[in-house]
Design a protein that fits this description.
The complex is a heterodimer of chains A (166) and B (657). By secondary structure, chain A is mainly alpha-helical. Chain A folds into 2 domains: 94 residues, Orthogonal Bundle (Helicase, Ruva Protein, domain 3), CATH 1.10.8; 63 residues, no CATH class. Chain A is built from 7 helices and no strands.
Chain lengths: 166, 657
């Protein structure tokens, strides 16, 4: 029932069912640059028990633990990447909100790029056709819009007849 | 009794929808006008019946009739009246009923307002619309009945989810639904045009007002939801790339592309195949969104498996309509010829560019939203795709698009002059860069990307306004007001909508400059926040109608002068032990000071999140302005259905919006 309630909140409107306070005052690192790094890294890590929330946005106790862990590693002198690696080694690929590039995510990362290329090529072919055909000129515009084919003329006559009959 | 009447009306609506879905098609096949003429009447009747069903459910909620299972699960007698009312669509069954109501509304609106359309076109369009309606009414009746009774009626309901008890909820979902269900009628028009083999400029003129109307409400609905999240969820975020948000963003992106490609189709008879495909895809994405949101598949693939009936039902509807329409499209696509020719550098070329980037962005959102689900279903591997992915894919795609907008506006139809267009808007770019440099100097340096975003936003606004400046300054100073009056409304619409996009970009750029303080404050303590002084005065408990609130009082000072007293609070709702956060905000200009509180410690000190967010309101003002541009375009007589002569005489410049 509770799960259902959370779903409903989610379904009906926007994300995040419960309002979150996330980072609490006591958790922060004293060093401002280190804290900023921790925030940046936290935004890339998923709160595993939440719906699509980063640990930086989540109130869940697991998120709190992960935030602490991130800050511990940073305080211990780890680089951003090694902090991420450390977390992934413990919690798996699932914890990354931006999946790493692998055979598993090939389509995910590749599709937008391929689509842009293919779409660009399709548009290019559209223009090639233009160049091969006649040069677009002023007269040609009027032709396609104003000029009616024979069948269209008949159609028009039929429509007018219909209207006047009513 | 009223509840049973509602149930009965819903079943009758299903019967009418089935009739409306079949008989006019038969009529079109036999060219029988009598049968075709039944379609508009059926559409109106269907709407009346669904409206009766919806009113009956509303009545059950307003009178707190807990013998209805749906009311028991989602309402509470202590709830303020507005939330009893908005609770009607604050749950699965009720929101599906609203969905169907809006579907029927659009069918009826077309039936009433499109008497001048050819009878077979109108009839078939309404038949397709009724097929969608019949499918979803059947879903309600057989799998999600909102009118089920409980045998022994409980005395009290379980209450509406506290997060949803907000005025924002009263308007956000209906607005969103009006938008994305509104695209259903565009889909129906497209299917009818394909069935009847009449894909031409007249089709583009026919669907344009409906596309515009749906686009306007969807734009406003998304912005409204984003604003609601901003003030309700308590940490000032406004967009989370959540699957539910993405579900509404995808049709918005393709709908925006459709709006632009329909202009090319109307003016030049080009891009016909593509425009029809966009019309189909846009509503398909709305259906997909409904599936994602309603089947429970988002919570996890397993939740879907536990209660598969609903999910499978919607999945079947989804496959039938998307598959069916794409099949129809594939059958007819080759029959549609190319239409007007144009050079790559032309107004049409610019609109193709627009369509390319909007569609790829929609695809990026699509793959990012569905990939984790598909991967888990196929291989069992679990991955997450969240904000960082979309910020790297969909967002960068918007940049070339935004850069191209002011240039595209300047290009002539058929064959344009790129160098000339750039020359005409160079002042916009120069002014944007100068102002950005000024801003950078004033704030003493900022992140390069954020500054670039400011420059982009300003360039968009000035670039849009250039259209007016250019036209007004053509004939000497005395002519300015006369010339401004002579500019067609559709040009104003385009200028306003594009400037709105620029204003939104400025708002997004502003987030890079926000100041955040996360501190535990004690009574009497003062902290600084972006030039303001914030003093914590203390905590008090305040009972509400159906909740208990812990409120913290703050005084905000600018130097010595008190500018505002801010009272953020935490609420615990009776019935559901879920705390919610009430933020307190102080607006200065288009910026806001934003406070939210967390845990109270030792009964005195409180965890505080305080922000100063420069120009944050631009994020929602931009879409609002875009919506106003859309409304202006909708009100332009020239673009209304059935005015082909006037549309023909239009100057080529007076097109986009």
């Amino acid at each position: 029932m509770r799960l259902r309630a959370i779903c409903l909140a989610l379904l009906v409107s926007l994300s995040a069912a419960a309002p979150a306070f996330a980072v609490r005052p006591g958790e922060q690192l004293p060093d401002a640059t280190q804290e900023a790094r921790a925030r940046r890294i936290s935004a890339e890590l998923r709160c595993l028990v939440c719906q699509n929330q980063s640990i930086d946005d989540s109130d869940a106790s697991l998120a709190t633990d992960l935030r602490r862990l991130v800050r511990e590693r940073i305080a211990a002198g780890d680089s951003d990447q090694s902090v991420l690696d450390f977390i992934v080694a413990r919690y798996g690929e699932f914890v990354l909100l931006k999946p790493s590039f692998s055979t598993q995510t090939l389509i995910l990362w590749g599709l937008p790029v391929v689509a842009l290329l293919l779409g660009g090529m399709a548009a290019f072919r559209l223009f090639r056709r233009v160049r091969a055909g006649e040069e677009p000129s002023g007269d040609e515009a009027g032709k396609s819009v104003a000029g009616l084919s024979e069948t269209e003329q008949q159609e028009l006559a039929k429509l007018i007849a219909q209207k006047s009959l009513r | 009794m009223i509840v049973e009447l509602g149930h009965f009306a819903l079943v009758m609506a299903l019967v009418v929808a089935l009739f409306q879905a079949s008989v006019p098609l038969w009529g079109a096949l036999r060219q029988d006008d009598v049968l075709l003429r039944l379609a508009p009447r059926a559409a109106i009747l269907q709407f009346i019946l669904v409206a009766m069903a919806f009113s009956a459910l509303t009545w059950a909620f307003l009178t707190s009739d807990f013998s209805v299972a749906n009311v028991f699960q989602n309402s509470h007698s202590l709830k303020p009246l507005i939330y009893k009312w908005s609770g009607v669509w604050g749950n699965h069954e009720g929101s599906m009923l609203l969905w169907v109501l809006i579907l029927a509304l659009f069918g009826a609106a077309v039936a009433v307002s499109s008497g001048h359309l050819p009878e077979d076109m109108l009839g078939v369009t309404l038949a397709v619309q009724a097929m969608v309606a019949a499918a979803f009414i059947a879903f309600l009746v057989f799998a999600s009945n909102p009118f089920l009774r409980i045998l022994a009626a409980p005395f009290e309901g379980q209450g509406l989810n506290p997060v949803l008890q907000d005025p924002g909820l009263a308007i956000h979902p209906p607005l969103l639904y009006l938008g994305y269900v509104g695209f259903s009628i565009v889909f129906s028009f497209a299917a009818a045009a394909l069935i009847l083999g009449r894909v031409d400029a007249a089709f583009a003129r026919m669907v344009r007002p409906w596309t515009l109307a749906a686009w306007i409400v969807l734009t406003l609905g998304i912005a409204m939801g984003s604003y609601w999240a901003y003030y309700e969820l308590g940490w000032g975020g406004y967009w989370f790339w959540d699957p539910v948000e993405n579900a509404s963003l995808m049709p918005w992106l393709t709908g925006t592309a459709l709006l632009h490609s329909a202009i090319v189709m109307e003016k030049r008879e080009a891009l016909k195949t593509w425009t029809i495909l966009l019309a189909i895809v846009t509503f398909s994405l709305s259906l997909l969104g409904t599936f994602l949101v309603r089947s429970g598949v988002l919570t996890s693939v397993h939740a879907f498996a536990v209660d598969p009936e609903r999910g499978l039902f919607i999945l079947a509807i989804l496959i039938a309509f998307i598959g069916g329409s794409l099949f129809l499209f594939a059958m007819r696509a080759s029959a549609m010829d190319g239409g007007g020719l144009f050079a790559p550098i032309s107004r049409e070329g610019a609109l193709v560019f627009n369509n390319l980037f909007l569609s790829v962005a929609a695809l990026a959102v699509f793959i990012g939203t569905l990939y984790p689900l598909l991967l888990e279903a196929l291989t069992g591997a679990k991955i997450s795709v969240g904000a960082p992915f979309f910020n790297l894919t969909a967002v960068p795609l918007m940049i070339p698009l935004f850069i191209a907008i002011p240039i595209g506006q300047k290009l002539a139809w058929k064959r344009g002059n790129l160098a000339g267009a750039v020359q005409r808007i160079w002042w916009a770019l120069a002014l944007a860069l100068t102002l950005t440099a000024g801003v950078n100097f004033m704030i003493g340096g900022g992140p390069v990307l954020a500054l670039a975003a400011i420059a982009l936003g300003l360039y968009l606004v000035f670039g849009a306004l250039d259209e007016l400046v250019d036209r007004a300054s053509r004939g000497g100073a005395s002519m300015v007001s006369a010339r401004l009056r002579a500019i067609p409304r559709s040009v104003y619409a385009m200028v306003i909508a594009h400037a709105g996009a620029g204003i939104m970009v400025l708002g997004l750029a502003g987030t890079a400059f926000e100041q955040e303080r996360i501190v535990a404050v004690k009574p009497g303590q003062t902290i600084t926040l972006g030039g303001y002084l914030l003093t914590f005065k203390g905590i008090s408990n305040q009972p509400g109608p159906n909740y208990l609130a812990t409120a913290a009082r703050f005084e905000l000072r600018d130097g010595a002068t008190l500018v505002a007293e801010l009272v953020p609070a935490k609420r615990v709702y009776i019935g559901r032990q879920m705390p919610t956060s009430e933020t307190a905000r102080y607006r200065h200009g288009f910026s806001e000071v934003y406070l939210a509180i967390g845990e109270v410690q030792d009964d005195t000190s409180v965890d505080l999140r305080a922000y100063n967010k420069p120009f944050v309101l631009f994020i929602w003002l931009g879409p609002l302005i875009m919506g106003i541009g859309g409304m202006l375009s909708l009100s332009d007589r020239r673009l209304r259905v059935g005015a082909p002569r006037q549309a023909q005489r239009a100057k080529p410049q007076g097109a986009a919006a």
